[in-house]
Amino acid sequence: MANEPAPGMGEITGSVLFYSQPEPLNPQTHGKLGLKQRANPFAFAKVAHVVPLNVTEFALYALSGPVIFIGEERMPAAVLGLNAGQNMFVDDDGAYQVGVYIPAYIRRFPFVFANDQAREQLVLCIDRANELVGENPDSPFFDDKGEPTEYTKNCMQFCNDYEVERRRTESFVQLLKDLDLFETREAAFQPMNPDGTPGERQLIAEFFAVSEDKLRTLPAEKVKELLENGALAQIHAHIMSLTGWDRLIAIQLDRQAKAQPQAANA
């Protein structure tokens, strides 16, 4: 794990959501740069309806929306919207909805760790293409001596902590796999026709979730183990969060209803 900004521009591999031009942070290239502070800095996050979520964030996000597992790796994710490319919690000005938990994956931007193949380690990078990164910043990356500022050190520590939690999350998911607790689930919505009859069922998403039936049939010693290592609390937070699909659907329907009169008057 990297503890200092990279001294050079090693070959960086991998692609990460939100980051279009990641560069290893170093004083030679970025000595005059820093972050421009804005009251509403989350415009970049408007293009994602799901983002990775670490296991320690399950209970925090459960009050805002569903926590699901996706892909072959069963990666935990926070559902931010019902339509691809649309985060329903961020407005056009880049403001995040008050009271909604912002995942650490979003809060660490524009910083991120990336693989440096030449050094076989992770190096701290910034997204150079982001409009918040530039000269005459409010929060410089380096001081006059080329040393990381306190701001940069804090961001580096945040990314270090994120990496620790990411690995802990991988262990948590592997535990669920070993216990065969996953099942395939669907989120769907059934609208009402104008005459009051049920309309056609609309599939919103397919995902993986912990099966409550499988959880109930676990041997007592396995349940005790999950309780003692804290995994059971996170599992319950995930299960409870799935009611958040109804919240997202209600928000979407409300916005559509409010937009219809505007469209008619246009």
Summarize the structure in words.
- Strand 7 and strand 8 form a beta hairpin.
- By secondary structure, the chain is an alpha+beta fold.
- It has eight helices and twelve strands.
- The chain has one domain.
- The N and C termini lie far apart (about 55 Å).
- The protein is flat and about 70 Å long.
- Strands 1-7-8-2 form a four-stranded antiparallel beta sheet. A three-stranded antiparallel beta sheet has the order 9-3-10, with no helix packed on it.
Gyration radius from CA atoms, angstroms: 21 Å
Question: First CA to last CA: what distance?
Answer: 55 Å
pLDDT < 50 runs, ≥5 residues: 1-14
Biggest β-sheet strands, sense, barrel: 4 strands, antiparallel
| Mean pLDDT value | 89
Domain module count = 1
Overall form: flat
Q: Work out the helicity level.
A: 25-40%
Counting H and I runs of at least 4 residues, what is the number of helices?
A: 8
Give the strand line-up of the largest sheet. 1-7-8-2
Write the element-wise H/E pattern from the N-terminal end onward: EEHEEHEEHEEEEHEEHHHH
Beta-strand fraction estimate: 15-25%
Structural class: alpha+beta
Total beta strands: 12
What topology emerges from the helices and strands here?
Blueprint: E1 12-13, E2 22-24, H1 27-30, E3 33-35, E4 50-52, H2 58-61, E5 67-70, E6 75-79, H3 104-107, E7 111-116, E8 121-127, E9 133-135, E10 139-140, H4 150-178, E11 182-189, E12 202-210, H5 212-216, H6 220-228, H7 231-241, H8 244-265
Antiparallel strand pairs: 1-7, 2-8, 3-9, 3-10, 4-6, 5-6, 7-8, 11-12
